[in-house]
Sequence to fold (399 residues):
Amino acid sequence: MILDNQLKDDMKNFIVEFCAKIGPRSPCSNSEAEAAKLFYNKLKLLGNEVKVEDFEVHPGAYKASFRLPTIFYILSIVFYWIYPWISLIISIISCLILFGEMYFVKEIIDPFFPKKYSQNVISKIMAKNLATNLIIIGSHLDSNWEFPLIKKIKYGFIVIISANITLNVILLIMLPIKIIFNSLKLEVGFFYLELIFYYIFIGTIPIALIQFFYMISNRPVMGANDNLSGMAVCYEIAKFYNLSENKLENTELWINAYGSEEIGSKGSKFFVNKYFNKIKNAKVINLDMVGYKNSPVLVHKSEIFGLIRLDYSLIELINNLAKNLNIEIKVSSSMAYTDSLSFARKHISTVSMGSIPQSSKELYYHTRYDTIENLDFQSMVNVYKICVNLIKSFESKKI
Fold:
């Protein structure tokens, strides 16, 4: 109990320091760079081998991926009757952005936006002897801009996005049919059906406009839970394994913080591509939003609604450790993505740990209410305990 209370105090002090000295840390901002420097200095004082690495990003593509498809959807409706080929081309571009950038986290339109720089912090705790294991514990440095829809309608924002995706897909399906029927001089047989859908498209333009104006703002949030909570746990793990009595014999431990996670896991993607040959056999644990109140520890079994599978053997190990530690966990798919996505796509063993509120009333993800007052430090302690014991298990060859 004394250990838990000390950990809570130390994690709270860590987050208070970052909130006071740095504040919100939007991707590629000066404040994100300052956060990287502060985390670097704190790890350096522990005696870690640590460095900050810059990488290129096109952050403007992120906000555009929410807004451009809504513009293209409306334009496609405008051109539907008079220039269906133009409407089809516009619709294809809209769906490429929606699915490419937002859903599959691919860089479809990034090259069209100005280049900026973000940072990763890479820290290594070397093994006493020849390392036979490599474990990477990571979190992300940046915080997002506020999502006004989440602030106002909580999980209802998923309905808005889903509706716009569905409407874009229906429009994309109908346009080739329309063009084919027109070329065969059979447009009369298709006319009444497409007229019904056209009225639906017209009537749902306000849904597109809601996404355009209210999905994302220009106000960066504090990000105490997303993701200073993960960074605080990473820092405590680094402190623990830098103590002489806890030094690992045959396991090399990397403690990382990635930049620009919020706009498509850019930092972890850069890291994986650069270090792939060194880390391809590593075990990777990513910590993201581990401080929600009234939440079990959430272990992701997949990313992007189940499309990208994470390492189920790691999940089972975490599940068994949690039972032994009497910590409640929940295994679930992530509706979006974490930095584990970058590793899983390269077939590196990885899993993400976080937390999620039981009630939508407590959802403050990507809102101005993501502050230290709304954190549950016991949840963070639970994640810390699972990670420390997982590392010990690897070291002792129990797993």
Observations:
- Strands lie at 49-57, 116-125, 133-140, 251-258, 283-287, 297-303, 308-309, 329-333, 349-355.
- The radius of gyration is 23 Å.
